Amino acid sequence: MSKHALIIGASGVIGSNLVEHLLAQGWQVTGASRGRTPVPAGCAALQFDATDAAATSAALAGVTASHVFFTAWARQPTEQENIRVNGAMVSNVLAALGPQGHLQHAALVTGLKHYLGPFDAYGKGSVPVTPFREEQGRQEVENFYYEQEDRLFAAAAQYGFSWSVHRPHTIIGYALGNAMNMGLTLAVYANLCKASGQPFVFPGSSAQWHGLSDVTDATQIARQLAWAADSLAARNEDFNIVNGDVFRWKWLWPRLAAYFGVEAADLPDTISPLAGRMQDADAQWRAIAAEHGLVEADISRLASWWHTDADLGRPMEVMTDMSKSRKAGFLDYQDTPDAFFRLFERLKAERVIP
């Protein structure tokens, strides 16, 4: 049977890598976005605001998707607004697709804030013991991830399709204009350090520097999403998704510095977030972009200081257990240093960084 994927957020770091993976597997792919960044070549492009019920219904009236993948969210100033807006996104899309009778499976990508709590209460509650496991369930706090899940579950029961939920750690992958992209942020930061002769200072906490951690390459989550779309063992299940290795930032940081030819500083005595040190970065990047003929001179479309600070500044060790996914049959693995270096090479090839 022909498989037709609708990817919500197809221009983002997860969505764009999923588009490429599914196309390579022979899927028909429709990529939905708000149009700020082009979707990858090879998929049909739709532009609409999924938080608008009428616009979503109109845009999807002729889309006979067998599978839908939610890989986007819209950041709001409060968690109550995150719940309202991002919950509506899931409901609107499923209300448009469900009655058509073609939808077989819906996959929702959330993340480790399922265990850590939302940005409003990030890491402030009773955080479960690491490594995080799916069986640990929800925190006693409002969280838009939970709202999205509940709306997914309700629609699946109403319209008779299966579902899966996927919880990555920090995403490493190629995409421009993405608000949650540590790999690109660190590449931009390293090049700013190189141009100014400044050392490459870790912007996070001592707990992150010394503790065990993991990350999720965008190609790794794309493979898990595709696997879950076809696997009987993945139906109506939630899964963590990381690369499969663990590391300490104090080990990885000098290796990233060596790649860019910059000095890896020792961990500072006090935390040194990027957001507080990047006041002149806009002008500096414009100069770097002009000197090297880069494709993007607007640093705000490349670096997400706030998100990288949030990830690396956490006051506790954060890592993820993959046993449930492996027992269900997903055995893929991605070496984390290789993921970073592959990303950096592509950024150079695409003239995003020098």
Which helices and strands appear, and what pairs or packs with what?
Layout lengths: L3 E5 L4 H12 L3 E6 L10 E4 L5 H7 L7 E4 L8 H19 L7 E5 L3 H4 L27 H16 L2 E7 L2 E2 L9 H15 L9 H5 L1 E2 L2 E2 H13 L6 E5 L5 E2 H12 L20 H12 L12 H8 L10 H6 L7 H14 L5
Parallel strand pairs: 1-2, 1-4, 2-3, 4-5, 5-6, 6-10, 7-9
Antiparallel strand pairs: 8-11
Descriptive account of the structure:
This protein is an alpha/beta fold. Helices cover 40% and strands 12% of the residues. The strands form 3 sheets. Strands 3-2-1-4-5-6-10 form a 7-stranded parallel β-sheet, with helices on both faces. It has a two-stranded parallel ribbon with strand order 7-9. A two-stranded antiparallel sheet has the order 8-11. Helix 1 packs across helix 8, helix 2 runs parallel beside helix 3 and helix 3 runs parallel beside helix 5. It is globular.
Keywords for this entry:
two-stranded parallel ribbon; 13 helices; 40% helix; alpha/beta; 354 residues; 11 strands
In helices, the fraction of residues equals 40-55%
Provide mean pLDDT, rounded. Answer: 94
What letter string, H or E per element, gives the SSE order? EHEEHEHEHHEEHHEEHEEHHHHH
Note the beta-strand portion: 5-15%
- Rounded to the nearest angstrom, the radius of gyration is 20 Å
Helix/sheet category: alpha/beta
Major beta-sheet overview: 7 strands, parallel
The global form is globular
Number of helices: 13
Poorly predicted spans = none
Distance between the termini: 45 Å
Strand order of the largest sheet: 3-2-1-4-5-6-10
* Total count of strands: 11
